[in-house]
Amino acid sequence: MIEAYVTREELRRLLSALLVVIIFICLVALFAFLIIPGTRNANAPIAVPAVNPPQGQTGWLDVTEYPPEAGYTVPPVDPKTVMTPTPALLARGKVLFEQNCVACHGPEGHGDGPAAKGLNPPPRNFSQPTGWINGYQIEGIWKTLQEGVKGSAMVEYDYLSTKDRMALVHYVQSLGDFSHGPEDPAKLAALAKLFASAGQVVPPKIPVSMAMAKLEEEYVAPAPLWNLAGAPALARRSILDPARAARTLAGLSGWRTDERSMARELVRGAPANGFSPAVATYTPEQWRDLHSQLEGIASP
Q: Which of 64, 98, 154, 265 is the most exposed place for a label (fewest CB within 10 A)?
């Protein structure tokens, strides 16, 4: 009946246009239901596993602030108490691992901690026997904790006591189910001898804020160059800031007796050191004159 109103050719064009509209609506619906939700999820922040903060370390939110501690000496360790992985050592090692290592190595030691994604090279996977820089024997793990690994994020853990480091060594070894093989008797003997012969000296420490306050208390500003108004023309032309120039000379040990060293340092730091950049053009004779003039006007 529709043929009474439109021709066969017009009907074909109408059906083609309707098909195009239907395909367009389907594409829009597909985009709305599939693409847009994926884009929203891609822009969402990456969920980072929670990390337990180090326990028992006052001021861990600011690692530069902690209570002052006096230095002390830890007596030598009996090798028999640390060379074998006892349950007590493994329990202590687990606590230390959670406090110091989980962020990079992950809770199971697979190298998948929340900070691992930004590290190159990636943290070691303790469950696998490959890639250990110093080996997975007791002596090798001890060396890694003692010295760190250059070129990586693995720093030295020499601030831990000998017993704590050995507890961490045993726990790290326990994270790998593979065979670690027999230990080298000579290396174990050398390590045991080290434990028995040397105590650990722990230096005193104070927080950075206290150190800065003490430095400010002890700092004595050098007196500015005096009698500059009546100084010779060369000295007046060479000095832009008398106070800063005085601090510069105060920091140059032996400048009164070493003219060449003084000239080299003044040229290198001008004008930030209080001296004019023009000193770089001075002749040896002018430097001798300036040196003599500075000795006359500088505070003793």
A: 64
- Provide CB contacts within 8 A for 95, sequence distance 6+: 55
Amino acid, single-letter form, for residue 39? T
Report d(CA 162, CA 202) in Å as an integer. 11
Residues contacting 109, CB < 8 A, separation 6+: 97, 101, 125, 126, 127, 172, 175, 176
Identify any residues that bridge with 202 across adjacent strands, giving them in sequence order.
Answer: 72
| pLDDT on residue 62 | 65
The mean predicted confidence, pLDDT, of the chain is: 83
DSSP E strands: which ranges in 33-182?
72-74
- Break the chain into its structural domains and give their ranges: 2-42, 77-202, 207-300
Domain at 77-202, CATH from 1.10.760.10, 3.30.420.40, 3.10.129.10, 1.50.10.20 = 1.10.760.10
| Model pLDDT for residues 141-181, shown as the tens digit of each residue | 999 998 999 888 898 888 888 889 999 999 999 998 888 88
CA dihedral sign of residues 164, 166, 167, 169: positive
User: Would you say residue 290 has pLDDT above 90?
Assistant: yes
Where do the DSSP E strands lie in 158-286? Answer: 200-202
Burial tier of 272 (Cβ tally within 10 Å: 0-12, 13-18, 19+)? exposed
